[in-house]
Amino acid sequence: VSGGGSVAGGEFSIQARPKSKAKGHFNYTSTDGTFKIRCKAFDSFAPDLTAKKATVPFTNCTITGQPTVKTLTVNVVDRGNPPDPTAQPSATPAPRDWIGFDNVAGDLVSGNIKVR
Questions:
Q1: Under a CB-based contact definition with an 8 Å cutoff, are residues 97 and 82 in contact?
Q2: Per-residue model confidence (pLDDT) at position 67
Q3: Could you give the CA distance from residue 48 to residue 77 in angstroms, rounded to a whole number?
Q4: Is the pLDDT of residue 73 over 80?
Q5: Count of helices and strands (H, E) across the chain
Q6: Under 8 Å between Cβ of 113 and 10
Q7: Nearest 5 degrees, angle CA 8-CA 16-CA 67?
């Protein structure tokens, strides 16, 4: 799982590759900068490559206003490439990638998530 972008409430980046645990991270900052999540590690997980979904159990997370070490589960759905911003609007717009964690969930406003 890798990617980054923005949702309605803020911006994020994620990297969780089972063979490269040392490089794993999840970062999120709310639009107003008052709510931040920083995760430095994750436990083993098995992405669903057919459905292009993954549930990543991050550990060693710091969340604004909460205890230093916390576990946070991040769910992602890779729905394909992000829409081309120069393309004409369509009656049936392409579905966007999706992310959900803590009290945030929704389609990406911009960016991309890859589940491989």
A1: yes
A2: 65
A3: 10
A4: yes
A5: 0, 9
A6: no
A7: 70
H or E stretch at 88 = none
In angstroms, rounded to a whole number, what is the distance separating the alpha carbons of residues 65 and 36?
9
Length of the chain, in residues: 116
Tokens of 113: 């998530």
pTM for the model stands at 0.84
CA distance 35 to 4: 17
Q: What percent of the chain has pLDDT over 70?
A: 87
Contact 64, 35 (CB under 8 A): yes
Q: How confident is the model at residue 58 (pLDDT cuts 50, 70, 90)?
A: very high
21 by DSSP, 3-state: which?
Answer: helix
Retrieve residue 101's tokens: 């964690």
Q: Which residues pair with 13 in a beta bridge?
A: 4, 27
pLDDT at residue 38 above 90? yes
Within 10 angstroms of residue 32's Cβ, the number of other Cβ atoms is: 8
